[in-house]
Amino acid sequence: MTRCSYPFLDIPDREGKPRKLGKTMVHDGGISPRQLEMILETAAPYIDYYKFQSTHCLIPEDITLTKAKMCRENDITLYMGGNVAELAWAQGRWDQVLAYALNHGWGAFEVSNTYVPFSEAQMIDMVKRVSAEGLEVFYEWGKKHPAEPLDPDAAAADIKRFLDAGASVVVLEEGEVDLLIGKDGQGEHADRLIALFEKVGLEHLMIEAGNIKQMAWLMTRFGPTISIGNLKSEQVIDVEPLRRGIGRLVDNFIYEPYLGKSN
C-alpha cells in the first residue's frame, strides 16, 4: 500500500480498483502522452474509466494506443465514447468500431443516441450485442438540452429496460443534471434526482457533472460512493478529496467524527 503524506492522519478509506461504487470516468479530447503521464503520476489510483472522444480521429493512432497502454498499466478501463460509435454507425461502420475496441483492449463501450435517432429497440439490440462481446456497456440516458425536468418514475422505467438488456451502468446526461440541480447544485428540482437514485440504485447510475460545485453537492448528498463521469483529466485530483470530505465545498466533513456537525 502506498504511503501518503501525513501518514499519522486518519483519512476515510475508499474501495480500491476495481470498484463497485464511487467510480470516476475521465474524458480525453486529445492530450499528449506526456500530459497523461503527469496526470497519472498523482491521480491514477482515482481514475476508473478513461474515455477517448471522437476528436481522437485527428490524433495519430500510435499516440492514442500509447495512452491506452498507459491506462491499462494503471488498472484504468478504456472507454469507447458514444459519439465515436454513433459516427461509425452513421457511416455504416459500427461493426468496425466494435472490432476496434475489442482488438485494442477497450473494456467499456458507450451506447448513446445524441445525434443518431436510434429507436429504443435498436439501442437495446446494440446493448445486448456489445454485452455479449464481454465489454461493459454504458448506456447514456437523457437529452443534452431537455425542455423540462425528468420524471423519476418514467426515467427509472426506461433505465431498468436497458439494465435488464445488459447495460452495466446508465450515464445521466449532463443537460438533465443541469436542469435538476443547476450548475452550483442549488437547482429547484434536486428532489427528482434524489428520487431517481432511490428508484434505480446508486450502483447503477453515473452522473455527468462538469462543474466542481455540482460534484461537491453530489458528494455531500450521496456520499463518496456516487459515480461521476466526463471529468476533465485535470479535475480528478480536485474531486477525490471531496469524496474524502476534504475541502470547503463539502464543508470539510472529514472533521465530523471528531468535532460533530455543529462545529
Keywords, please?
263 residues; alpha/beta; 8 strands; globular
Strand content: 5-15%
Largest sheet geometry: 8 strands, parallel, barrel
Number of strands: 8
Rounded to the nearest angstrom, the radius of gyration is 19 Å
Morphology: globular
Mean pLDDT reading: 93
**N-to-C order of helices and strands:** EHEHEHHEHEHEHHEHEHH
Runs in which pLDDT lies below 50 for 5 or more consecutive residues are none
Spatial separation of the terminal alpha carbons: 33 Å
Strand order in the sheet with the most strands: 1-2-3-4-5-6-7-8
Alpha-beta classification = alpha/beta
Q: Total number of helical segments?
A: 11
- What quaternary form is this? single chain
Helix share of residues? 40-55%
Task: Give a structural overview.
It is a single chain. This protein is of the alpha/beta class. It is 43% helix and 14% strand. It is built from eleven helices and eight strands. It has helices spanning 33-43, 61-73, 82-90, 94-103, 120-132, 152-165, 174-181, 190-200, 212-222, 236-243, 256-259, and strands spanning 24-28, 49-52, 77-80, 108-111, 136-141, 169-172, 205-208, 227-232. The chain has an eight-stranded parallel beta barrel, surrounded by five helices. Helix 1 (33-43) runs parallel beside helix 2 and helix 9 (212-222) packs parallel to helix 10. The longest helix has 14 residues, at 152-165. The radius of gyration is 19 Å and the shape is globular. The mean pLDDT is 93.
